[in-house]
Design a protein that fits this description.
Layout: E1 4-10, E2 27-28, E3 31-32, H1 33-42, E4 48-53, H2 57-64, E5 69-72, H3 79-86, E6 96-101, H4 109-122, E7 126-132, E8 141-144, E9 150-154, H5 161-164, E10 168-177, H6 178-185, H7 200-208, E11 213-217, H8 230-250, E12 254-255, E13 261-263, E14 268-269, E15 274-275, E16 279-281, E17 286-287, E18 292-293, E19 298-300, E20 303-304, E21 309-310, E22 314-316, E23 319-320, E24 325-326, E25 331-332, E26 337-338, E27 343-351, E28 354-355, E29 360-368, E30 370-372, E31 377-378, E32 383-385, E33 395-397, E34 402-403, E35 408-410, E36 413-415, E37 420-421, E38 426-427, E39 436-437, H9 449-461
Parallel strand pairs: 1-4, 1-6, 4-5, 7-11, 12-15, 13-16, 14-17, 15-18, 16-19, 17-20, 18-21, 19-22, 20-23, 21-24, 22-25, 23-26, 24-27, 25-27, 26-28, 27-29, 28-30, 30-33, 31-34, 32-35, 33-36, 34-37, 35-38, 37-39
Antiparallel strand pairs: 2-3, 6-10, 7-10, 8-9
Helix pairs in contact: 6-7
Length: 462
C-alpha cells in the first residue's frame, strides 16, 4: 500500500505483567503479541513499519529482527512523545500515518482496512478507531458533535456524569494525515498530571484548527482489547485460538472438542485430519491429510505426513512420514526422523535417530543417536547405550535386522542387514549381516536350592 506507514507503539514496561520481558513480547497463540499486530499491518500491503521501542529495546530487536525499523523512546513521556520519535524515519512520500499499539494482538486486518478506507475517502485529518462497550469504565470516551464527527476524547477522570454514560471509547488506533499530525504534535504540551505528551491532545488541536476528525466503530469490540496483565493475556489467547480452530474446521479439519484443543496460529493441517481432545499443537508444525491426532498429544515444530495416527504422545522437532502409528505414550525427541509406515509403540523414546521405512519399535525401548534401516524389528526392552559419560556414540542397524527383546546395543556398534540378536544380549561388537549374535551366560539350574535354603533357615531358628 503506497503512501502509508504504520507506527506501532511498543516502548512501555508493562508493569502489571510482573515480568522482565517487555509486554509486547509475551506469547499469545504461539508468537509475541506485537507480531500479531505486525502481521495484520503487513497483510494490508503496508510495507513500511516503524516500531517505537524503549524498555528492554534489545530484547525486542532480537525477537523481531530486521523486518521492521526501530525508533527509540528513551524516556516514556506519553503516546504523543512516542510518535514524535518515529518522525525522522518517515519519508516525504508518506501521506498517511497509521498508529497502533503493540499490545493489541486481536486487531484484524479487515478492521484496519475499513479504518484506512474511511480515512482516505472522507479526507479527514484524523480518523479514530472506536468501540462500543457495555462497561466503558477506565476508557477515554468519544464525544461527537452534531454532525457525528469526533469533537474530543475525554478521559474518565475528567469526564462529567453525562460523559461517563457514553459507551463509545477510544481504542488507541488512529489514521492521520502526516502533515496535520506532526504540525499538531508540535503544538501539544505535557501540561497534565502525568507530565506526558498525549496523542489524544492532537485531536483537540486539529479540531481547534477547523479540521475534520472522523471515527470508525469496530464491529467486534474484542478486537480492540489492549493486553496489560496475565489475565488479559489469557483472554486474548482464548479468542485467538478459537479463531484458528474455526479456520481449520472451515478448511476441512475435524476438531472433536474445541474447548480442550490448543493449536498455534502458524500451524498447518490438511483436510480430513481429526484432532481429538486434550491435544496441543505448537509453532511451526505441519500435519498432512487423513491423520488422527490425540487424545492427549503434544506436537512442537514437527512435520507429520499423511494418514498418521498419534495417541497420547509427545513429538518435538521431529519428521514423521506417511502411514506411521505412534503411541500411546511415545516420546519423539528432536532429530527423530521416521521414513514412513513405522510403528512406534507405548513407552518408546527416540532421539536424534533416523528410522527406515517399515521398521517397528513396538514398546519399552530407547533408540538414541542411531540409524535404523528398513523393515527392522526392535524388540521390547531394547536400548542403545549411546553415552559413555563423556560423549555420544552412534548405533547402526541394517535393513531387515531383528533385535531381540531386552538387547543392550553398546555404541559405537553396527548390526548388519538381516542379522539377529538373541533376547537379553549385551552387544558390544559389530554383528555381520545374516548372523546371529548372542552374549549372555549359560543358564544354570540348581535343583532343590529353595528347599535347601528353607531347611537351613529352619535349623538356625531351632
Amino acid at each position: 500500500m503506497q503512501g502509508v506507514v504504520a507506527v506501532i507503539l511498543a516502548a512501555g514496561k508493562g508493569t502489571r505483567m510482573k515480568s522482565r520481558l517487555p509486554k509486547v513480547l509475551h506469547q499469545v497463540a504461539g508468537k509475541p503479541m506485537v507480531r500479531h499486530v505486525l502481521e495484520a499491518v503487513q497483510s494490508l500491503g503496508i510495507n513500511q513499519q516503524i516500531l517505537v521501542i524503549g524498555h528492554e529495546a534489545e530484547l525486542v530487536k532480537a525477537a523481531l529482527g530486521e523486518q521492521v525499523r526501530y525508533a527509540i523512546q528513551a524516556e516514556q513521556l506519553g503516546t504523543g512523545h512516542a510518535v514524535m520519535q518515529a518522525q525522522p524515519l518517515i519519508g516525504e512520500e508518506i501521506k498517511t500515518v497509521l498508529v497502533l499499539c503493540g499490545d493489541t494482538p486481536l486487531l484484524r486486518a479487515e478492521t484496519l482496512a475499513i479504518l484506512l478506507a474511511e480515512h482516505q475517502q472522507t479526507g479527514a485529518a484524523a480518523t479514530v478507531l472506536t468501540a462500543n462497550l457495555t462497561d466503558p469504565s477506565g476508557y477515554g470516551r468519544i464525544i461527537r458533535d452534531a454532525q457525528g464527527l469526533v469533537e474530543r476524547i475525554v478521559e474518565e477522570k475528567d469526564a462529567s456524569a453525562e460523559e461517563k454514560r457514553v459507551q463509545e471509547i477510544n481504542t488507541g488506533t488512529y489514521c492521520f494525515d502526516k502533515v496535520a499530525l506532526f504540525k499538531a504534535l508540535g503544538e501539544i504540551s505535557p501540561a497534565n498530571a502525568q507530565g506526558e505528551y498525549y496523542l489524544t491532545d492532537v485531536l483537540s488541536v486539529l479540531r481547534g484548527a477547523g479540521q475534520k476528525v472522523g471515527a470508525v466503530v469496530a464491529a467486534d469490540p474484542r478486537e480492540t482489547y489492549g493486553i496489560n496483565s496475565r489475565v488479559q493475556l489469557a483472554e486474548a489467547e482464548k479468542i485467538l485460538r478459537y479463531r484458528k480452530l474455526v479456520r481449520l474446521m472451515e478448511a476441512g479439519v475435524t476438531i472433536i472438542d474445541p474447548a480442550t484443543t490448543f493449536i498455534d496460529d502458524e500451524v498447518e493441517i490438511e483436510p480430513d485430519t481429526i484432532i481429538y481432545p486434550n491435544t496441543i499443537i505448537e509453532r511451526g508444525t505441519r500435519i498432512g491429510c487423513e491423520c488422527v491426532i490425540g487424545p492427549g498429544t503434544r506436537i512442537v515444530e514437527s512435520r507429520i505426513g499423511n494418514r498418521v495416527e498419534i495417541q497420547n504422545s509427545v513429538l518435538l522437532k521431529s519428521l514423521v512420514g506417511d502411514e506411521c502409528t505412534i503411541g500411546p505414550f511415545a516420546y519423539l525427541r528432536p532429530g527423530t526422523e521416521l521414513a514412513g509406515k513405522n510403528r512406534v509403540g507405548d513407552f518408546v523414546e527416540i532421539k536424534n535417530s533416523k528410522v527406515g521405512e517399515g521398521s517397528k519399535i513396538p514398546h519399552l525401548a530407547y533408540v538414541g543417536d542411531a540409524t535404523v534401516g528398513r523393515n527392522v524389528n526392535i524388540g521390547c526392552g531394547t536400548i542403545t547405550c549411546n553415552y559413555d559419560g563423556v560423549r555420544k556414540w552412534p548405533t547402526r542397524i541394517g535393513d531387515g535386522a531383528f533385535i531381540g527383546s531386552n538387547t543392550n546395543l553398546v555404541a559405537p556398534v553396527e548390526i548388519g542387514a538381516n542379522a539377529v540378536t538373541g533376547a537379553g544380549s549385551t552387544i558390544t561388537k559389530d554383528v555381520p549381516a545374516d548372523s546371529l549374535a548372542v552374549e549372555r551366560s549359560r543358564q544354570t539350574v540348581i535343583r532343590d536350592w529353595v528347599k535347601k535354603k528353607r531347611t537351613d533357615r529352619s535349623a538356625q531358628h531351632d
